[in-house]
Amino acid sequence: MYLSSYLKQNNYSVNIIDLEVECESKLEHTLRESNCAIFGIGGATLLFPEVKRIARKIKSYDKNNIVIFGGPHATAVEKDVLRICSDIDIIVSGKGEETLKELLDYYYFRESNISKIQDQMSECRGLCC
């Protein structure tokens, strides 16, 4: 929730779906009805199989959707996550507020192609592409 507040303070529109509490149909509705292009997923190691499934669902709806993963598991084994789950595009590790904002700024104000973002931002601290 802290990331959401930080992004809202920086004029980004944020929609949170907590799949531990809410029905998965809300995610499906968001995929169908919104113009979201970037999806953030957080989770601990125990939830990683669910994270992979959700990332796959997001990409199956539109392969151009960008999936960002953060949280304890992402921070601990970032390179492994990208190797294991090709549906995750970018890892934000550690305290990711500023890194995530920088990534969104880059996407919205400079370049929306994920491959170019990965190339240009691969050296950004806290980011693994």
Give a verbal description of the structure.
- The protein has 129 residues and is an alpha/beta fold.
- The protein has a single domain, classed as Cobalamin-binding domain (Rossmann fold, 3-Layer(aba) Sandwich).
- It contains 7 helices and 4 strands, in the order H-H-E-H-E-H-H-E-H-H-E.
- Helix 3 links the parallel strand 1 and strand 2.
- The mean pLDDT is 85.
- It comes from marine sediment metagenome.
- One of its GO terms (molecular function) is iron-sulfur cluster binding.
- InterPro entries: BchE-like, Cobalamin-bd.
- Keywords: Iron, Iron-sulfur, Metal-binding, S-adenosyl-L-methionine.
- It holds the Pfam family B12-binding.
Shape: globular
| Number of helical stretches of at least 4 residues | 7
What proportion of the residues is helical, as a percent range?
40-55%
Q: Tell me the series of helices and strands, N- to C-terminal.
A: HHEHEHHEHHE
Separation of the first and last Cα atoms: 23 Å
CATH class value? Alpha Beta
Residue fraction in strands: 5-15%
Assembly state: single chain
The CATH topology corresponds to Rossmann fold
* CATH H-level superfamily title: Cobalamin-binding domain
β-strand number: 4
Global structural class = alpha/beta
CATH architectural type:
3-Layer(aba) Sandwich
Taking Cα atoms only, what radius of gyration do you get, to the nearest Å?
14 Å
Which strands sit side by side, in order, in the main sheet? 1-2-3-4
GO molecular function: cobalamin binding; iron-sulfur cluster binding; metal ion binding
Cofactor: [4Fe-4S] cluster
Protein name: B12-binding domain-containing protein
Domain B12-binding: 1-114
